[in-house]
Design a protein that fits this description.
The protein is an alpha/beta fold. It has two domains: 244 residues, Aldehyde Dehydrogenase, Chain A, domain 1 (3-Layer(aba) Sandwich), CATH 3.40.605; 185 residues, Aldehyde Dehydrogenase, Chain A, domain 2. The protein is built from 16 helices and 16 strands. A seven-stranded mixed beta sheet has the order 11-12-13-10-9-14-15, sandwiched between helices. A six-stranded parallel beta sheet has the order 1-6-5-4-7-8, sandwiched between helices. Helix 3 runs antiparallel to helix 5 and helix 5 runs parallel beside helix 6. The protein is globular, with a radius of gyration of 24 Å. The protein binds NADPH dihydro-nicotinamide-adenine-dinucleotide phosphate and 2-oxoglutaric acid. The site of 2-oxoglutaric acid has 9 residues, from loops. The site of NADPH dihydro-nicotinamide-adenine-dinucleotide phosphate has 29 residues, from helix 8, helix 9 and helix 12.
Length: 481
């Protein structure tokens, strides 16, 4: 993280001055935030959904207006390159316009009743107060993915952003405030996850928790929500792989691998951390990959020519270094990278050289555990069937990709890969907001974000029977056998 010119501490020590918003920092403040969200919920849920959606549409317009300023902010606080920071905000904008459209849908069902003069239907109702616990890697997009559909559906929200990116979250909430959202509809609490985040998850008046982050924390959140009967949506990362078959367009596959493995410095839950290469192209593709990787430019995210930016913090850098020791001990070869980058100004930040590990086998920890850094493991296969077996040999199931020109293999892969997302001839990253986002196995707990699936996450079904037989009713009941 590079955060010159940002006095993060001052964000933490002051309340937002906005008319409708407050930010909260202690457990006592969590209670206040929940109370505020609970109170606002009683009014917000009754505002027609198309009107609620108009606020979110305005947030989209405001994000567009403030895009460049926000991108600078993300880049300086979180560290990602400016072009990627713009993408982060664009996801928020896309999500705003998409979610706003849902305000005029929120479709229910009608179905014939068993009885005469009776009408049967379902309507969607909001859930209540939603706690949104978010990570640092997409400091604008992920809060938007959660908050926008939640609000359109009639819920009120409390955002607990990562402690690494409090300023981005505060900026985002200021933008929501500018849209004119009523008091208490959107609340922000800063603070350490184990205290403030946990207090939110445990709070009896929170009805839903939507969490994105590590498997360890996600499991704890899930346990508490299970015990307290809260709805919980968990998104906990992946060990995503890209397969490159012998008939693939290698230049295209190379673009995908570079972007998938090293985009956002590998700090994406969808990052390509395994490359499954067919024996026939392995040597050639590995050389192409090493050549291109060695030319990637490391630097501060806000420098326009930077391709690989810093890792978020010292702890994460140490974690990546630790995995290099593990890789060596397990017998993997480090073909390129494998160490901290300290040339010139790079020594002032948490830079790690983009790394390619070779001779990785399925049982190695570097093939099984989420590293969350610029590291990709190469695994060789001799057949398509082996490639599918290896891609599925993981506890996670978020994103996946295959490069092939064989339409039959592409369709089999689409059917047989155990993941929430499969790309054919595209990298494992780059989700679009109008399609469901999430994974199978230990990546999540069956919920999806984005797309119309987000509406399922943030609403309850109510079944309504309307009897319109009036004075005829008694006679009908009497005639029933
Ligand atoms: N799936 C994904 O997109 C992401 C996955 N990760 C994975 O997680 C690893 C560690 O990253 P880290 O940032 O520590 O991830 P965490 O899972 O710890 O943090 C994610 C969010 O949860 C909060 N939190 C932490 N502990 C609790 C708790 N007990 N109750 C409620 N909320 C809590 C954090 O707050 P605070 O920041 O204050 O600790 C943050 O807002 C990474 O190496 C990577 O493997 C990380 C980020 C995103
Ligand atoms: O690149 C993508 O597909 C989205 C990544 C993302 O949302 C994440 O890493 O949390």
């Amino acid at each position: 993280m590079i955060c010159e010119n940002l006095s993060i501490l001052s964000w933490r020590s002051q309340r937002l001055g906005g008319l409708f918003f407050q930010s909260f920092f202690t457990n006592a403040d969590v209670n206040q935030a929940v109370e505020s969200a609970r109170k606002a919920y009683q009014t917000w849920r009754k505002i027609p959904a198309p009107t609620r959606a108009e606020y979110i549409f305005r947030v989209g317009e405001l994000l567009l207006q403030h895009k460049e300023e926000l991108a600078q902010f993300i880049s300086r606080e979180m560290g990602k390159p400016l072009t990627e920071a713009r993408g982060d905000i664009q996801e928020g904008i896309d999500c705003a316009f998409y979610s706003a459209g849902e305000g005029r849908r929120l479709f229910g069902q009608t179905t014939p009743s068993e009885m005469p003069n009776k009408f049967a239907m379902t309507v969607r109702t909001p859930i209540g107060v939603c706690a949104l616990i978010t990570p640092w890697n997409f400091p604008i997009a992920i809060p938007c993915w959660k908050a926008m559909p939640a609000l359109v559906c009639g819920n009120t929200v409390i955002l607990k952003p990562a402690e690494e990116t409090p300023a981005c979250a505060t900026k985002l909430v200021e933008i929501f405030a500018l849209s004119g959202l009523p008091d208490g509809v959107f609340n922000l609490v800063h603070g350490v996850g184990e205290e403030v985040g946990k207090a939110l998850v445990e709070h009896p008046d929170v009805n839903l928790v939507s969490f994105t982050g590590s498997s360890e924390t996600g499991s704890q959140v899930g346990e508490i929500c299970g015990r307290t009967h809260k709805r919980v949506c968990l998104e906990m990362g992946g060990k995503n792989a890209q397969i490159v078959m012998e008939d693939a367009d290698l230049e295209l596959a190379l673009d995908g691998a570079i972007w998938g493995a090293f985009g956002t410095t590998g700090q994406r839950c969808t990052a390509t951390s395994r490359l499954i290469l067919h024996h026939d192209i392995k040597a050639k593709f590995t050389k192409m990959l090493c050549d291109r990787t060695s030319k990637l430019r490391l630097g501060a995210g806000y420098n326009v020519d930077t391709e690989i930016a810093a890792i978020i913090n010292q702890r994460q850098l140490e974690r990546v270094c630790k995995y290099m020791d593990i890789a060596r001990a397990e017998g993997a070869n480090i073909l390129i990278g494998g160490e901290i980058a300290a040339e010139g100004n790079l020594k002032d930040g948490y830079f790690f050289k983009p790394t390619i590990l070779d001779n990785v086998t399925p049982q190695m920890r570097v093939a099984r555990e989420e590293i969350f850094g610029p590291v990709v493991a190469l695994m060789e296969v001799k057949s398509f069937e082996d490639a599918i077996a290896i891609i599925n040999d993981t506890n996670y199931g978020l994103s996946s990709s295959i490069y092939t020109r064989d339409i039959n293999k592409a369709f089999v892969a689409m059917r047989d890969i155990e993941a929430g997302i499969t790309y054919i001839n595209g990298p494992t990253i780059g989700a679009e907001v109008h399609l469901p986002f999430g994974g199978v196995k230990q990546t999540g707990n069956g919920h999806r974000e984005a797309g119309s699936a987000a509406i399922d996450t943030f609403t309850e079904w109510k079944t309504v029977y309307v009897d319109f037989s009036g004075s005829l009713q008694r006679a009908q009941i009497d005639n029933r056998e």
